[in-house]
Prior knowledge:
CATH superfamily of the domain at 23-108: Winged helix-like DNA-binding domain superfamily/Winged helix DNA-binding domain
Low-confidence stretches: none
Structural class: alpha+beta
CATH architecture of the domain at 23-108: Orthogonal Bundle
Strand content: 15-25%
Distance between the termini: 75 Å
Strand order of the largest sheet: 1-3-2
CATH class of the domain at 23-108: Mainly Alpha
Number of helices: 4
Amino acid sequence: xxxxxxxxxxxxxxxxxxxxxxxxRLALTRLLFAGTDRHVTVNALHKEARANNxxxxxxxxxxxLNQFTEAGLLREVVVDASCTYFDTNASHHHHFFCEEDRYxxxxxxxxxxxxxxxHPPPERRSRR
Length: 128
């Protein structure tokens, strides 16, 4: 019987993405990828980390989420200028955003079809 360390899966994810495995990255990886796909904000993940006794600053959560996005582990979904979500489902798909409750719902990529789109406007020369 093989005994796996609690952080083994998180360690493998980070190595595969080419990221160093710091204590904070390991802890945040476990929180992010422990269950089903989800959408998190920086503040929500920071709050969740603190509730799970992970000592991490808001800046570290922000930087880690951006590093994970650059490495392809997450997708960044900008809802508006004041709200960005990070999606643990990095596959091709789209989203519905519920403004009232402020949450995202995944739409599989193959379910969205664009039937018609406008022609681009003619090129305009800038005036000097």
